[in-house]
Amino acid sequence: MLPAPRNCGPEKRLRLICDDLWAKASPVDRRKFIRITSRAVAGTVLAGGVYSAVEAKCIQVTRFSIAVPNLARAFHGKTIAFLSDIHHSLVVPRVYIEHVVSVTNALAPDIVVLGGDYVTSGEKYRWLHGEKYITPCFDALGKLEAKLGRFAVTGNHDTYVGLGMVRAAIKSTGFENIDNHGIWLALDGHKRRICGIADLRTQHPNTGLALGDATEKDAVILISHNPDAAEEIVHDKRVGIILSGHTHGGQVVLPFIGAPMVGMCSNYGQKYRYGLVQGPICKVLVTCGVGTLPPAFRLNCPPEVALITLTSPEV
């Protein structure tokens, strides 16, 4: 083998050496090399696929501490378990949802909030027959426990499958549907409002109805399936914090690139992909959700139950 020229870079030297070895190899050696390399690549792809599928079902608890403007001392330290994008379907089985419920109940949250998209539906996913998963989904979610209340909004997939059926299921399990509606929670003579709006893109959200008689001096937590709603609520400073889902955290997050799928969910690029984000008037917590859309893969973005601890400026 002739030595590679010394006046070339290390990458070129390596390529020249490899080219020389390949030229001198026998046809048998070449076929053996191709066979081994192909198996290695296939094994890597398969392993990555298996890992991604496993990650999609490895629910984790992510803890957030959020300061809510005007929150009374009585509510300091109270917790909200926030579950969004359940997507019960052929690829998100009931046994997994039951496991998520068990994990959530072990946290003993004060409040449970469901952020919408309980099944997978729509023209693209018609083959999944989302309507048949509504009842079993809420049979499982109905076992969620909370000390101060359980609340739910609907999302775009709930519109696709049929809002009437989904809202009836919410009611049947004892959750309070807060689409364009709100509830005052009282504790030790103090109150805070928890409210929600209908899905931004497929329904008719009404922030005014959700906020009701709240003032800028009240503590208000708003639930919106779609985080882009934060950009629509720019003149109403009564909202203290927004809880959202919808983006799945990108579901697949690639190194140096980010989450290519987020653009399908949000009009604001990666801004509302995941985590605690500063919106125009308040912070927005975007959870990456519980379930997945087909194919049922997640990468660098495991599913989660978001456990939120509320903090008061009075403490």
Features of the shown structure:
single chain; 315 residues; alpha/beta; Purple Acid Phosphatase, chain A, domain 2; 2 domains; 6-stranded mixed β-sheet; 7 helices; globular
Annotation field: number of helices? 7
User: Which architecture name of the largest domain does CATH use?
Assistant: 4-Layer Sandwich
Please bin the fraction of helical residues: 25-40%
Q: Main beta sheet: strand number and arrangement?
A: 6 strands, mixed
Query: How are helices and strands ordered from N to C?
Result: HHEEHEHEHHEEEHEEEEE
Could you provide a short overview of the structure?
This protein has 315 residues and is of the alpha/beta class.
Can you offer a commentary on this structure?
With 315 residues, the protein is α/β, with parallel strands linked by helices. It folds into two domains: 10-50; 59-311, Purple Acid Phosphatase, chain A, domain 2, CATH 3.60.21. 27% of the residues lie in helices and 20% in strands. It has seven helices and twelve strands. It has helices spanning 10-24, 27-55, 94-106, 134-141, 156-161, 163-172, 207-211, and strands at residues 60-67, 79-83, 111-114, 149-152, 176-177, 181-187, 190-197, 220-224, 241-244, 275-278, 283-286, 304-311. Strands 1-12-2-3-4-5 form a six-stranded mixed beta sheet, covered by helices on one side. A six-stranded mixed beta sheet has the order 6-7-8-9-11-10. Strand 7 (190-197), helix 7 (207-211) and strand 8 (220-224) form a beta-alpha-beta unit. Helix 3 packs parallel to helix 4 (134-141). The longest helix has 29 residues, at 27-55. Residues 36-52 have low confidence and may be disordered.
